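re: the backbone from monday

yeah here it is again, tokenized this time
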């Protein structure tokens, strides 16, 4: 697999060197014959032709590998990527086409010298099958990389050169463009479309959720598009799996350093006093909130010396803004869940994956000890959860007045509906980490929190009061015996497969190797959701929440600390 990337690396270096030469050369000065625009265009043409051939190779390899090892559970993955499965198993290389009976000329000959069909032994054990699926996932990632590089180095249709998407390079001079523009200026650069690469990475992640590489590549794409929030999320996802992609740990620093630099620039320019988030238009409110979230993670990881912000105060501001945006239905539903996942991922990374290199000297000051940072992150995880509980309890206290008596779905308000996926994720985390939270809770009656060594959260009684209020209201309005059971994965279950902070508590997330029948069964169950009404799905989420609190109430951990007394739920 490294052969493709070695050639790509060489091409990238040559293209960058030639581009710098062209940009630095004075105007109207004769250029060397091998360093002019013509040579640049020829080089880019060869590079893109190479990438096109590589994309054909990886497409063919993915199809051949899936068929040779009878990886039937990956068939829907190939269908989603529009990679047709040849039904002519006797052909030396197969005939892959987009329509039945119509062959694709690019696959009509054994161009890449694959072994003859029939020489590949089928996997005989679940472990071998799991290994083959991991290899197939890596091949799909490579296919996505080829699509990513093809788009990155595509300068057609008004696209900028690679690395110049931010408009820092002056517009190219020249006459009127082909479509009739103003002489001397290019039109606004055309945005790049990485949809094909994103699809490959997403499908590779769904195929083998325990692999971190696909999430790492998604983080790179988000970074290309200057989406620091999504990039940080994908980097955490790349680390919080059984096979973490270690490079992501260092790449996270790029995101966080950039956030601190932006904050430091605002401080120097005197723009620290930004307008209140409530005074901004909805889209800008969401973007401002995302920036605050990334900055909070930077304060935890790199310290507060450069930004001059108190991480505890900033975390409280983030929670306050989060509650306002959720209550007013401004924050998109998936972003509500992503905020939860980000905080859980940050805590897992801090606890389980220590930095291999210390922060740079200019960032080294102001970084508290790891236990203090862990306490801050844990408090934030619980504070975000608590804000959802408070919002939910308020909504449950005032159900719609026009709700039908026997229609429970009509009792779900619009605001409460938007929080249910995130509440499920937060609930699974609490259930999975109950013992850890209990150990971080000070003994009852203790007022000297400084005497407690290690990680601690002093305001847990407040959290549990909101917790009890929410679940009392939830059970009263939605009796569990009247709710449909959740038996197949929902969107958040599918997306969070393999996410270790949840310890495989999401529906359909199996940490052990399973056979093809089990995988296919999960897939069929997920497909069966098409026949489930969205209101039914929301009732299933509520049912699952009540089951979680029943499991939590029955947990032996609650006997270790009176704060965890949930006797009121033992009858569920």
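seq for it, each position gets an aa:
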């Amino acid at each position: 697999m490294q052969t493709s990337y070695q050639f790509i690396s060489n091409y990238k270096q040559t293209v960058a060197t030639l581009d710098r030469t062209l940009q630095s050369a004075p105007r109207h000065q004769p250029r060397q014959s091998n360093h002019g625009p013509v040579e640049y265009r020829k080089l880019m043409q060869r590079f893109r032709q190479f990438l096109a051939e590589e994309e054909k190779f990886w497409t063919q390899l993915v199809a051949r590998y899936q068929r040779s090892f009878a990886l039937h559970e990956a068939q829907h993955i190939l269908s989603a990527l529009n990679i047709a499965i040849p039904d002519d198993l006797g052909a030396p290389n197969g005939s892959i086409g987009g329509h039945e009976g119509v062959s694709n000329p690019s696959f009509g000959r054994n161009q890449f010298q694959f072994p003859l069909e029939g020489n590949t032994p089928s996997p005989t054990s679940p472990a071998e099958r799991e290994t083959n699926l991991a290899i197939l996932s890596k091949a799909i990632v490579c296919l996505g990389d080829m699509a990513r590089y093809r788009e990155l180095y595509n300068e057609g249709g008004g696209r900028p050169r690679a690395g110049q998407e931010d408009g820092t390079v002056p517009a190219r001079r020249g006459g009127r463009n082909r479509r009739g523009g103003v002489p001397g200026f290019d039109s606004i650069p055309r945005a790049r479309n990485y949809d094909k690469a994103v699809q490959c990475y997403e499908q590779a992640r769904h195929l083998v959720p325990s692999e971190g590489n696909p999430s790492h590549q998604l983080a790179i794409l988000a970074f290309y598009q200057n989406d620091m929030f999504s990039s940080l999320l994908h980097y955490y996802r790349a680390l919080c799996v059984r096979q973490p992609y270690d490079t992501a740990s260092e790449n996270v620093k790029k995101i966080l350093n950039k956030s601190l630099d932006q904050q430091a620039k605002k401080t120097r320019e005197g723009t620290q006093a930004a307008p209140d988030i409530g005074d901004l238009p909805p889209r800008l409110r969401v973007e401002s909130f995302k920036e605050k979230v990334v900055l909070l993670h930077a304060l935890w990881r790199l310290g507060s010396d450069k930004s001059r912000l108190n991480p505890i105060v900033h975390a409280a501001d983030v929670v306050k803004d989060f509650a306002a945006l959720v209550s007013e239905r401004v924050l998109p539903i998936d972003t509500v869940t992503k905020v939860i996942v980000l905080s859980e991922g940050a805590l897992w990374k801090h606890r389980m994956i220590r930095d291999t290199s210390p922060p740079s000297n200019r960032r080294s000051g102001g970084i508290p000890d790891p236990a203090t940072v862990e306490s801050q992150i844990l408090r934030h995880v619980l504070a975000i959860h608590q804000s959802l509980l408070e919002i939910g309890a308020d909504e449950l206290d005032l159900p719609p007045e026009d709700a039908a008596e026997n229609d429970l779905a009509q009792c779900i308000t619009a605001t409460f509906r938007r929080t249910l996926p995130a509440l499920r994720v937060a609930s699974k985390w609490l259930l999975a980490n109950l013992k850890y939270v209990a150990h971080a809770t000070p003994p009852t009656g203790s007022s000297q929190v400084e005497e407690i060594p290690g990680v601690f959260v002093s305001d847990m009684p407040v959290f549990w009061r909101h917790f009890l209020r929410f679940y009392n209201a939830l059970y009263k309005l939605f009796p569990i015996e009247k709710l449909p059971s959740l038996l197949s994965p929902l969107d958040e279950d599918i997306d969070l497969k393999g996410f270790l902070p949840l310890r495989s508590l999401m529906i359909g997330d199996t940490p052990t190797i399973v056979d093809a029948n089990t995988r296919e069964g999960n897939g069929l169950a997920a497909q069966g959701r098409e026949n489930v009404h969205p209101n039914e799905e929301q009732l299933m989420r509520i049912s699952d929440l009540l089951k979680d609190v029943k499991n939590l109430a029955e947990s032996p951990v609650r006997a270790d600390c009176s704060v965890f007394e949930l006797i009121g739920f033992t009858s569920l």
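The longest helix spans residues 37-68. The chain has 19 helices and no strands.
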